[in-house]
Design goal:
The protein is α+β, with helices and mostly antiparallel strands. The protein has two domains: about 1-125, Galactose-binding domain-like (Jelly Rolls, Sandwich), CATH 2.60.120; about 135-345, SGNH hydrolase (Rossmann fold, 3-Layer(aba) Sandwich), CATH 3.40.50. The chain has helices at about 140-145, 165-175, 205-210, 215-220, 245-250, 255-275, 290-300, 330-345; strands spanning about 1-5, 10-15, 20, 25, 30-50, 65-70, 75-80, 85-105, 115-120, 125, 135-140, 180-185, 235-240, 280-285, 305-310. The strands form two sheets. Strands 1, 2, 3, 4, 5, 6, 7, 8, 9 and 10 form a ten-stranded antiparallel beta sheet that branches. The chain has a five-stranded parallel beta sheet with strand order 12-11-13-14-15, sandwiched between helices. A hairpin with a 7-residue loop joins β6 and β7 (about 75-80). The chain is globular, with a radius of gyration of 20 Å.
Length: about 350
C-alpha cells in the first residue's frame, strides 16, 4: 500500500478546507476530497477532536460518507471514532478505475475532522472541478440538521444530520455544480439564537465569512487566521439562508427589525465586495418567514440587478417534520425545486 498526503497533487478539495501541517481539515458540511483511483483497495486516516468521556456524547460524533462514481447513495456512511483512525473506504476483487468522493455529512460546530493520509494499492489523482460553483450561507437548515429525524419531538443527533440530501446539495446536483456550505447551527446574521431575548452577536455569520474555518482555529491552536481565497474559488451563485435564528431576538420590535435590515444590507455589500460577479439569492422561510420583508428591503436598497430575494414555503405538518422541528427530506426537496427554478431564471442555467 502506498501512502499519499491529502494535498492538491493527489486530491481535489471540496468546499472550504484547510491544509495545514499535512492535514486536510474538512469541518464544514459537504467539505471533503475527491479523486480518481485505480486499484483494488483504499483506506483513509482521519483525525477528529471528538472525545467520548460521557455516554451521551455519542450524539456529537462526526459522520462521513463515501460516494463512488456519482452514485445516488453512499457506498459507506460511518462515524469517526475518537482520535486518529484508519477506515477502509473502497475494496474490490479486481483492479478498476473509480471516482471516490469523501465528504463530511455533519457540521463543524459539533465535531471537527481532518484527513491525514490516503493509503492505496494503486494510483490516485485529483478530479477536475465542475464548470459551475454555488456557495450556500446558512444556519442549521443548511446543515441538514435533523433532516432524517422521525418527528419534531426527537432530539438532535449528528447521525440524523445529513447535508448530502438537503436543499443545497440537491440544488447543486441539479445543475452539475460544485458547492460549498458555510453553515452553523443557531447562527444568525444580526443575532444568533437568543434564549433570553437579549442580542446574541458574539458569533454571527458576518464574523465567519471571510475565513476558511474560524471555528477550527482555536481547537488546533492556530497562531494566525486563515483567510479564504475568493479568487481561487469564485462562486457563480451565492445563496443566503439566514434570519431563522435572528427572529428570536428581533421579534416584532421595530428598532430591532430595522437593525436586522441594516445588518443584512451591510452583509450583502460585503459579499458583493468578495464576489464581484456572482448572482446572490437571499432566501428565508422553511422554518418561518417573519423577517422576509426586511430581507426584501435590504435587497432593494442595494439596487443591484444580480441580487434577488426568494421566499421559501414554510414546512407543512402533512409533509412530516424532522428532529427538533427542523425540515425533513420532503421539505428540503420542495425548497430545492423552488430554488432551482430561481437560479435558472437569473442565470439561464438548465438543469442536467
Amino acid at each position: 500500500m502506498k501512502k499519499y498526503p491529502a494535498d492538491e497533487k493527489n486530491i481535489r478539495p471540496l468546499g472550504r478546507t484547510l491544509f495545514l501541517d499535512d492535514m486536510r481539515y474538512m469541518d464544514w458540511c459537504c467539505s471533503g476530497a475527491e479523486f480518481m483511483f485505480t486499484g483494488t483497495e483504499i483506506s483513509v486516516e482521519i483525525w477528529t477532536d471528538w472525545i467520548l468521556d460521557e455516554p451521551w456524547k455519542t450524539i456529537f460524533q462526526a459522520y462521513m460518507a463515501v460516494y463512488i462514481n456519482d452514485e445516488e447513495l453512499p457506498r459507506k456512511k460511518f462515524a469517526l471514532d475518537a482520535g486518529t483512525n484508519s477506515y477502509t473506504i473502497y475494496k474490490s476483487e479486481k483492479a478498476e478505475t473509480v471516482k471516490i468522493r469523501l465528504i463530511k455529512l455533519s457540521e463543524g460546530s459539533f465535531s471537527k475532522a481532518a484527513l491525514k493520509s490516503i493509503s492505496a494499492d494503486g494510483e490516485i489523482s485529483p478530479t477536475k472541478p465542475a464548470e459551475r460553483r454555488i456557495e450556500f450561507i446558512g444556519d442549521s437548515i443548511t446543515c441538514g440538521f435533523g433532516i432524517e429525524g422521525s418527528c419534531a419531538e426527537e432530539g438532535f443527533r449528528t447521525e440524523t444530520e445529513n447535508s448530502a440530501v438537503n436543499y443545497a446539495s440537491l440544488t447543486a446536483k441539479r445543475f452539475g455544480a460544485d458547492h460549498s456550505l458555510i453553515s452553523w447551527s443557531t447562527i444568525g446574521l444580526y443575532s444568533s439564537w437568543s434564549d433570553d431575548g437579549n442580542i446574541n452577536n458574539g458569533w454571527i455569520m458576518p464574523m465567519l465569512y471571510d475565513y476558511t474555518d474560524l471555528g477550527l482555529e482555536g481547537i488546533i491552536g492556530a497562531k494566525e487566521h486563515f483567510l479564504w481565497d475568493f479568487g481561487k474559488y469564485p462562486s457563480d451563485v451565492i445563496v443566503i439562508n439566514l434570519g431563522t435564528n435572528d427572529v428570536s431576538y428581533t421579534k416584532d420590535i421595530p428598532e430591532r427589525l430595522k437593525g436586522f435590515e441594516r445588518a443584512y444590507a451591510d452583509f450583502l455589500r460585503h459579499i458583493r465586495e468578495k464576489n464581484r460577479s456572482a448572482h446572490i439569492i437571499c432566501t428565508l422561510g422553511m422554518m418561518g418567514d417573519e423577517l422576509f420583508p426586511q430581507i426584501e428591503n435590504a435587497v432593494r436598497s442595494l439596487n443591484d440587478e444580480k441580487i434577488s430575494a426568494l421566499r421559501f414555503d414554510v414546512q407543512k405538518e402533512e409533509d412530516g417534520i424532522g428532529a427538533e422541528k427542523h425540515p425533513n427530506t420532503v421539505t428540503h426537496k420542495k425548497a430545492a425545486e423552488k430554488l432551482s427554478e430561481k437560479i435558472s431564471e437569473v442565470t439561464g442555467w438548465k438543469t442536467v
